[in-house]
Amino acid sequence: MAISSYAAVSISKTLMKTSTSIPRLPIQNHLNTTHKPKPSLASIFRLHTPKPLTSNTYQQNQIKSLFTGIVEEMGQVKQLGFDESGESFDMVIHSPTVLQDVNLGDSIAVNGTCLTVTEFDTQRLEFKAGLAPETLRKTSLMELEKGSVVNLERAVKPSTRMGGHFVQGHVDGTGEIVSMEPEGDSLWIKVKTSPEVLKFIVPKGFIAVDGTSLTVVKVFDEEECFNFMMVEYTQQEVVIPLKKVGQKVNLEVDILGKYVEKLLSSGFVDTIKTR
Predict the structure, then answer these.
(1) 113 is catalytic
(2) Is 67 a catalytic residue?
(3) Is residue 109 among the annotated active site residues?
(4) For the whole prediction, is pTM greater than 0.90?
């Protein structure tokens, strides 16, 4: 599978050698606690006057990227809301690791959603990305607020090891966490989603949850749910265990399943049989 190049604009920056850890909340405090519903999408759009980042602004998104579902770091949302014009809804994220070789126009998966870097500041260790209204409607990013922790992953390079699976950063829909049950030092998580998404989810198949490559354990068709288990190490490296029952997660199913359905529905298999 061909992977397209990042570089739309080349800019010389001093690579950051230091890495700043973001404080993590105790996982056990978030198990089986009911999440209060978030306000409507319209009420989340809050006007603010962000401090401008130091780089130039990138205007076009022509990058097609691929991810692996192996989260590189957990960043922290510093600003979220409309820009000064009142037309662009932007998010500024503190992220020491992914800024080490960033360029304008690069793609970064934020909780599994492919976003484009429009500005960045290597001194403040922050980057800005714009969110279209459809992105907010389709994903769980509308639940974020200042201080929220998010999964971050840079798009892969041709030399990158594929530790997870092919993740496009194109969220298929959201799911709702319905249970979080510890077993030893591992954590069972059960997610409910729509039938349109669930039909592509199979036991032992891949699923990207908030951009994290995971293996489905079981599918509960009657409940419209599926579950997966996270080992202790993964729990410490991603944001999912920090969420509460009732909160949403972004879901991206294995793209191979979507291609198979397309071929079957188009009659392609029947065409081959008649040859």
Answers:
(1) no
(2) yes
(3) no
(4) no
